[in-house]
C-alpha cells in the first residue's frame, strides 16, 4: 500500500445529519457555494432591506446570536467535528484560509501575510505577521504574538497519529518535513507536488495554529477550553447550554471583529431551534428544506431568506467481500433502483441535484448533470432484472437514526420494495453506527452527510484501502487502474487538466459498479434576521472566517 | 416504630446495592458494544490505538465492581467521553435545572390535584365533579411530547410568543426570565401527575366519606369543616402523598422531552443523550443517583406517613 | 359486571379502534409506507387527511399505526400482568425466602425512574418493538405483583386451598392450579388499568426514536417527524396525536370503576 493510501481525511459528519446536527446552522460546515457554480456567493432571494447602490457602512458592537442543533462535544482545535467546529475557527488563527468550494473568496491570509511555492514544487514557505497577539485569558497563556514555534507545535500535534486530528491524513500522506528558518518563517516540504496543499492547510477543521503553551496542556483541557489569537476569545463554554465568545482586544486587525459578542446556543430539538428564531431570539436559522424556509419567510417579520448549495448529501455504502454486494450486478442494480428525482422532490421539496462520485458542488471537477444522468440512470426494470439474475431478493442495510435519516430510509425501502425486493433496514444510534461503520462490522449502510473539502477526499472512497487508507470504512474494493486515476488527478497542478482528470476518474468509477453510491445533494436554506448587516451564510467552512465581518444594525 | 424505621432504612440500602449491581452489569455487559467501541469513540473518528476511554477501562470482576462503587461514593465520576468535562461538574449545573422543574411540577401537582380532588370527592356525581374528572381523564391520555410541542408552537403561531429558549437562566440571578422558562415547562410536565393525583384524591375522599366514623362525627354535631379536616383528610391524604412520591420518580422520564423542547439543559435530556452516545461515565452516574433519589423520596414519604398515621408504622 | 355510561362509551370507542387495527388493510388499502402523491398535500378525495412530508397518506398511516400501538402496549400489558401474577402469587403463597427475593427484586425495579430503566435495559436487549414490549412488561409487573401478593395472602387461608393440600396436592400444584386461577381476574383488571399508560409509554419511546420498526409505522414516530413541519402540514401532527389520545381515553374510560378485589 502506498503512503498515498494512508490518509485519513476529513470525514466530517456535519451534525445536521449526524446528531440532528449543527454545523450548517452556523454556516460552519456542510453548506457551500451557490446554485450554479458560476456565481459562487450565496444568493439572497428576498430583496435586501436597503438599496444596494450605496452599501451601508458597518456598525460595531452588539451580540450576534446563533444556534446549532446537537452538542458542542468539546472545542479541541484539531479534532472537533460537532458544534465545537463552529467555535474553533473563531478563536484561532490559521496560516490562511482557502476552500475549493469558495473560489469567490480566494485565499484569505490570516497569520501568514504571504507564502510561496519553491521551484521544486514541493517546498512551501510561509511568512508570518508579527502582531498576531494571543487574546487575554485566565488560562495562564501569556499575551504574546504567535510565532513560528507555535506553527511548528501545531503541525506536530496534527501530524501525531495519536491526536486523531482531522488534518492528520494530509501530513501523513504528503508532508515530508517542516521547520522554521527564523521566528517569522515556516517551511513545509512535501513528498510530492500536491494540488490541494493550500486547501489542506487552509481548512477550518485542520489547520488551527494554537499557542504552544496551551498545546502542552492535557487533552481534556484542550477539549473544554480554548485560547488563541483569533478574532474572538472564548469567554465560556457550557456544554448543552451556550458558548460565548467576545471580541479579542488583541486581534491584529483593529477594525475587526465588528460584534462585541458571539453567542451560540445548542438545541436538542429542531422545532425549538426554529421557534427561537421565529420569535426573534436568534439571528440566523438554517431551515430543514426550502418549503419550511419559504413558510418562515412569509410568517416571520424582518427575515431574509437565502438559497445556497450544500455539501451535504447521503450515500449508500457496500462491502464488496460480503454477499450479496460482491456481485457487480447487485451493486449496479442498487444504483439503477434509485429514483433520485423522487428523493429530490419529496425530501428536498424540489431543491437538490443528483450526485455522482464527485459531488456537483465541486463544479467543473464533477461530471455535468446530463452526462451523470446518462451514466447512472433510474431504471427500475433493469435493476429488477439484475437483482433477479443475481438471485437476490432481500436487501439488508444498517443506518444511523437521526432527524432526517428515517426519511431517506423510508424512501429507499419503498423504492426497492416497489421492484419486489424485501428490505430490512437496521437502525442504530449514531455512535454505535459510527463505531460499527468505522470498525468494518457492517456489510451495507446508508450513511449520511459526507462533506468533503476537496474532490480528492470524495474519491478516496474508491481507492484501495478505503476512505482512510487504514482499513476503516473499507469497502474492500480494489481497482488499481482507478487508484492510478485518483492519484494522478491529485498531483495534476494545472487547473483545467485537473478538472478533466477528476471527471475522467468519475466516469471510470461509475463504469466499474462502485461500492459507494451518492444519492443527491440537498440545498441549504438559511434565514437571517434583518438586524444582521452582513452575513456570509453560504460557503462551507469559509463562512466562519467571514464571521469577523458580521455586524448588526441595532 | 423505631424498629420499623430502621428496618425500612436497611431495606433501602439493600435495594440500592441491587440497583448499583444492575447498573454496573447492564452498562458494561451490553453484547457487542464493548468490542465495537474499541474501534471508535463516540465523539469523533479516531484511530484504534486512540480509542481508550481514558480512565474508563472496562472492568469485569467483583473487585472492579467494588472499586467502581467506592469511586462513585467519593463523587469521583470520571469525565465525559464526549465533551471531556468532569461528570460531577456537569451534573451539578444540570441538577439545579431538573430540581427546579421537578419541584415546580410537584407543587402544581399538589396545589391543583389535591384541592380539586377533594372538591370532586365532596361533590361527587355533580357537574363540577364530572368536569374535573373528565378533564383529568383527557389529561391522562395526552402524550407529554405532543402537549409540549403544542405549548411551544401554538402561541408562537398565533400570538408570536415563545418563552426564552436560549438556555436556562438562574432563578436567583434572573428570576423573571427563569420563571418565564420554567412555568410553562413545569406545567406541561405536571399535567399527567396532576390528573392522577386528582383522581386518586377523589377516590380516597369518597371511600373515607362513607366510613362509619365520619357519619358518627357528623351525627355528634361537629361542624362540617372540622369533620373534613380532622377526620376525612387526615385519613384520605396519606395514601395520596405516597403516590406523589412515586410520581416524582416518573417526572424524570417526562423531563427528557420537556427539557429538550424548552431547551432547558437538565439531567433528563443529558441522561438520554449519554445512553444514546454510550457516554458511560455520565449514564451510570445519573442512573445511580436518580435511583438514590427515588429510594430516598420513598423513604421520606414513608416517614411522613408514619408521622401522619401511626398505624402504618405498626403494620 | 355493570357498565356505567362512561365505561360503555369507552368500550365502544376501544372496539372501534381495535376494529381499525384489525381491518386496517381493508379500511386503507395500499401501502402506508408508499408515496401516493406530492409532499404535504391538503385533504382530498384520494387522501382524506392529505399527505405527509414524504407524500404518504396520513389517514392510512394513522389507521395502520393502531396496530403497532395495540400490539406493543397489549403485549406489554399481558406480559406484565402474567409475570406480576405469577410472582405475586408465588410471593404471597410461599412466603419465606421466595417472598423476600421477589419483593426485593420488585423494589429494585421500582427504584429506577421508569425511563432510566427502559433505556438501560434496551441498551442491553436492543430497541425492537418486541424488546420494548418485554421491558414495559417488566415495569408493569411489580405493581401487579404487589396487589396480587396481598390477595394471595388471603387466598391461601381459604378452606378449599387447605382441602387441596390435605388431599396431598404439591405446593406447586396448589399454586398453579388453584391460587393463580383464583387471582387471574385481579391481575386482568390491574392490567387494564395500566394499558393506557403502556400506549403512551410506547408512543413516547417511538417519539424518542426507540424501537421503531422497519416500516416506521408508529404514532409516536409520526408525531416526531411531522412536528418539525408543523406550520406547513398541520394534519400530519394532529392525526397521530389525536389517535393516541383517543385510544388512551377509550382504554381509561373502559377501565373506570373497576377496582380489583383485595
Spans where pLDDT lies below 50 across 5 or more residues of chain A: 1-43, 47-52
Tally of individual domains of chain A: 2
List low-confidence stretches of chain C. Answer: none
Oligomer: heterotrimer
Structural class of chain C: mainly alpha
Helix and strand arrangement:
The complex is a heterotrimer of chains A (554), B (315) and C (262).
Chain A: E1 12-13, H1 15-18, H2 23-26, E2 31-32, E3 43-44, E4 63-69, H3 88-91, E5 96-97, E6 108-109, E7 112-117, E8 123-128, H4 148-159, H5 168-174, E9 175-182, E10 185-190, H6 197-201, H7 212-215, H8 219-224, E11 232-238, E12 242-247, E13 261-267, H9 270-278, E14 284-287, H10 290-299, E15 303-318, H11 328-337, H12 340-346, E16 352-354, H13 369-375, H14 380-390, E17 394-401, H15 405-417, E18 422-429, H16 430-438, E19 444-447, E20 450-451, H17 455-459, H18 480-490, H19 495-511, E21 516-529, E22 532-534, H20 543-546, E23 551-552
Parallel strand pairs in A: 4-13, 17-18
Antiparallel strand pairs in A: 1-20, 2-15, 3-15, 5-6, 7-8, 8-10, 9-10, 11-12, 12-13, 14-21, 15-19, 15-21, 16-21, 22-23
Helix pairs in contact in A: 11-14, 18-19
Chain B: H1 2-28, H2 33-39, H3 62-73, H4 87-122, H5 127-140, H6 144-159, H7 175-209, H8 212-219, H9 224-261, H10 267-276, H11 280-308, H12 311-314
Chain C: H1 5-22, H2 24-27, H3 58-94, H4 96-111, H5 114-125, H6 129-155, H7 159-166, H8 171-207, H9 219-226, H10 235-254
Description:
The complex is a heterotrimer of chains A (554), B (315) and C (262). Helix content of chain A is 29%, strand content 23%. Chain A has 20 helices and 23 strands. Chain A has two domains: 39-283 and 531-552, D-Maltodextrin-Binding Protein, domain 2; 310-522, Dipeptide-binding Protein, Domain 3 (Dipeptide-binding Protein, domain 3), CATH 3.10.105. The model of chain A is unreliable at 1-43 and 47-52 (pLDDT under 50). With 315 residues, chain B is mostly helical. In chain B, 75% of the residues lie in helices and 0% in strands. Chain B has helices at residues 2-28, 33-39, 62-73, 87-122, 127-140, 144-159, 175-209, 212-219, 224-261, 267-276, 280-308, 311-314. In chain B, helix 6 (144-159) crosses helix 7. Chains in contact: A-B, A-C, B-C. The A-C interface holds A 270-271, 274, 288, 291-292, 295-296, 299, 342, 345-347, 349, 401, 403, 406-407, 409-411, 413-414, 417-418, 423-425, 427, 429 and C 31, 33-35, 38-40, 53-55, 209, 212, 214-216, 221, 225, 227-232.
